Amino acid sequence: MITKSIPSLFTVANLFLGIVAIILIFPENAKPEVAAMMVIIAMLMDGVDGRVARALNAQSEFGKELDSLSDVISFGVAPAFIMYSVAFQELTPAPAWIITALFPICGALRLARFNVISGMPGYFIGLPIPAAGGVLATLALFHKDIAVSVLMASTLVLSFLMVSTVRYPNFKKLGIPKNAIWVVPIIVAVSVVLGILFPHHLSKILFVPLVLYALYGLKKNVDRRLPSRKRKRLMESKRQEEAVQSEHSA
Question: What is the C-alpha to C-alpha distance for residues 248 and 250, in angstroms, rounded to an integer?
Fold first, then answer.
């Protein structure tokens, strides 16, 4: 019974960190760097819980639903509030509220689709909400260097990517051997310590691979569409040549 509960403990830790991230952006706290780091550590928890569940053969519908509900808070609501608190608060309320709310809404839609529709083997359909939340939370740390209009557009793009049909590589199949599960708490502990000690620098560094992952899906989607367009053009040109030849022969 205890073994079956271990994956859920990591999921609850993910949810806890998401709530802490929200608390850390209240005006009386105002620590967006630490809040963003909480989102990043929550991503680690989210990546670990499923692998631990598979290693212990403790997968369940309860764990799946708990994971989705936790993800909405940690990677939907928390990053959106971080961005709003540092960049959108001084804007006209209507667009600022709508864009802020749209991000977790699209994240919830993305999770609902993931739960009911089987994706392609080895791929996610749409940008996973942990990656989108990680990008948004760390992007908010650059609010002094990036125009607000760009931050708003980026939030909308990330929201769209979550509900899009763009394919992203799925690394969840990379499991943890059962005899190596003892390493997981050490990795988590080290990550938490580093995150607390260096929240500002570490979160900004992690922004780079997260953005590259988001852009990778777009690039692969474009590459996949280009050959089909080329084939269509070749077929059209072939039909036109055949039509010209038939006219000449007539």
Answer: 5
d(CA 82, CA 98): 15
Nearest to 152 by CA among 166, 169, 162, 139: 139
pLDDT of the residue at 193:
66
Give the closest residue to 129 by CA, choosing from 97, 164, 96.
164
- Asked if 144 and 96 touch (Cβ cutoff 8 Å), the reply is no
Burial class (CB in 10 A: 0-12, 13-18, 19+), 218: middle
> Which residues have a Cβ under 8 Å from the Cβ of 8 and sit 6 or more positions away?
49, 62, 63, 66
Q: Nearest CA to 36 among 213, 204, 212, 210?
A: 204
Q: Is the pLDDT of residue 23 over 70?
A: yes
Whole-prediction pTM value? 0.77
83: pLDDT confidence band, cut at 50, 70 and 90? very high
Kindly report the number of other CB atoms within 10 A of residue 196's CB atom: 13
